[in-house]
Amino acid sequence: MSYASQEPEALIAEMGARARAAAGLLAQAPTTRKSAALHLAAAAVRGTAPDILAANQADLQRARAAGLSTAMLDRLELNPSRLAAVADALDEIAALEDPVGQIIDRRTRPNGLVLERVRVPLGVVGIIYESRPNVTADAGALAMMSGNAVILRGGSEARDSNRAIHAALVAGLTAAGLPEDSIQLVPISDRAAVGAMLRAAGVIDIIVPRGGKSLVARVQEEARVPVLAHLDGIVHLYIDAAADPAKARDIAVNAKLRRTGVCGATETLLIDRRFADPAAILAALADAGCTLRGGDEVRAIEPRAEPASDEDWDTEYLDAICSVAFVDGVAEAMDHIARHGSHHTDAIVTEDAATAEAFLAQVDSAIVMWNASTQFADGGEFGLGAEIGISTGRLHARGPVALEGLTTYKWLVRGTGQTRP
Amino acid sequence: MSYASQEPEALIAEMGARARAAAGLLAQAPTTRKSAALHLAAAAVRGTAPDILAANQADLQRARAAGLSTAMLDRLELNPSRLAAVADALDEIAALEDPVGQIIDRRTRPNGLVLERVRVPLGVVGIIYESRPNVTADAGALAMMSGNAVILRGGSEARDSNRAIHAALVAGLTAAGLPEDSIQLVPISDRAAVGAMLRAAGVIDIIVPRGGKSLVARVQEEARVPVLAHLDGIVHLYIDAAADPAKARDIAVNAKLRRTGVCGATETLLIDRRFADPAAILAALADAGCTLRGGDEVRAIEPRAEPASDEDWDTEYLDAICSVAFVDGVAEAMDHIARHGSHHTDAIVTEDAATAEAFLAQVDSAIVMWNASTQFADGGEFGLGAEIGISTGRLHARGPVALEGLTTYKWLVRGTGQTRP
């Protein structure tokens, strides 16, 4: 079938109809069959590694010719060890607990009706992502393993890599006896396809955007399909007066600098004025190459710090930069977080359990941590086995989203002839 | 404060800011205090019954002068017994189990981190509804009891009744020491206020529309805030070959005719051609005053039936009208439901458990029933104590939505100084 000549709306409608048909079969598919498809897909990735790497080289050549940045090229690049990790991830997703069919609750009514809420797949999931080709495998596998048909729309720069990886996924589906339309890849790379997906209400049940700010902003503006959005991670680490200085230093350095480009990386450090040793923390960060930004109070303690502007408090640096502010106690820290946070992840370091519990209860973020690095904000670290994103929205799923977040439920009512009075 | 002269956007922004502040307090409020506020509000409704009934008379007079239909006037009308029911409902909601603070799951990671998912309120809930003034009390109470601040926008025809009931709710909140901004009523009645609410992303966390098709269509088109939508209830009842004829007849008459205006009322009856006694069911419906619509096969059995048009299969009558079709077995019935249903409620009558389980598993609706009247599709009948609506969407909450559906969760991570390798 030649999709590439179709208008984007017609293309998405047709892919959506095929996805819906596949979703009906996938929703009833046993766990073992879905797992088998992913193990077979992993084998196909390993078996066709030379083809996938060659396709990736073609993408990289085009990207270099187009003058993409080194960071973009790095995200796009596959090599034997990265590709082995793609295959391993498929095997790991195949081993995850299947939420489909789980009974959430059951009750018997006085009239004898037996009610159950049972997890079922969402249906047709659309995933829009950018340059990393591993998302084709990860996201496709997570959606399929949770019983959904998925329509993948990757970045045009990764076109050939995505096609090669997608072929391996389809090989796995077919070998396991599941419909190949369970995981479809949008075959055209113009941006109109994204718009058509965002408007496809009733055709696509949920859109998961995985990308930078411009993608997310476009999705928020245009989508008529519900979105599981992953917005900014303006992550705060608050060092309380009662923090253990060594723990506070180790957590701060790890939270900020372990990897600076991940959404769980700390961006703003808040320090209680009564905390014993702020200088050691600021020095440790600066020594490790972190640019600090703060007010006079901060720069008096750590001369390497630069002045902070108003914008700094609302900025997700995703870089070795950290804004630092002193506060008077946990209440002022929570107030700062309420004004500047993005409801992603925020953490407190303290040995005072009452202060910690107040922070845990009152900070309105998807993830709130006590005495742990914010870099743990990750589906794998949470034991979910994987993640399709970290939801900063309040509806449906919040925080790391894996298989369960890609399901909904239905109510089953079993009676013996009851009529309602 | 005089809101009424403000532009709708500024008004909603200001009400939203007050709601957000109230939500912060409500999220931490103990169950006993929220319950007390509702019991006190119930007492205030009873204590100010003459005022509320007088306000309702003013609304009714305006509505009669404006030529509203008898059905509209009936929905608008309060009388002493209906008002007593409003107060009783507040007492009942006060006694519901509070989902806030419930621990959904807990896990300890190999590195010692302890993870909990804990239910928390959604935040600020907007409810847009039409003429029934009891919704002011019901919806306001459900949202507040689940820890949310709520902005209510009732129909202009019920303006005075809503204000009087709202005053009783505020009296309860104040007497219990909760912020009066926990339940706010939009003080202007022009339709621009609805648009301002629908666009208030970040100010209002979720909109619950409770009204007819035109409201829901507008909400679906305009909303930038997530919506918990209650769409059509094109409800099917399938009588299988293996149905018990007496049960089938009783369920069919109840499912169609107990109340025809509710969303759980059956609209289409599907009958297996091998079922023993279709004539008795069709006669019972026609005898009870139901207009039947079907093809030649139906009219050959029940001469009072009218011809059905193509539209009938996609119509929610909400009236004593029933479309009827014969099918060859459960697979054809499920295919009809997949093409014409609205994913609300669908039911099978059969004594064959395997057929029933196939229907329960494969019909993709919020509620799927076996040997029970579709009129049981109701939060109260499901033991939820109440309902703010029946969600036909797939995200967040599905089917009857009560307190739990008005909450989300957050992840709490408790550590002892862990950093991520």
Describe this protein's structure:
The structure is a homodimer of 421-residue chains. Chain A is an alpha/beta fold. Chain A has 2 domains: 8-229 and 393-413, Aldehyde Dehydrogenase, Chain A, domain 1 (3-Layer(aba) Sandwich), CATH 3.40.605.10; 235-376, 3-Layer(aba) Sandwich (Aldehyde Dehydrogenase, Chain A, domain 2), CATH 3.40.309.10. The first copy, chain A, is built from 14 helices and 16 strands. In chain A, strands 10-9-11-8-7-12-13 form a 7-stranded parallel sheet, with helices on both faces. A 4-stranded parallel sheet of chain A has the order 5-4-3-6, sandwiched between helices. The first copy, chain A, has a 3-stranded antiparallel sheet with strand order 1-2-16, with no helix packed on it. The termini of chain A are far apart. The mean pLDDT of chain A is 94. Chains A and B meet through α10, α14, β13 and β16 of A and α1, α10, α14, β13 and β16 of B.
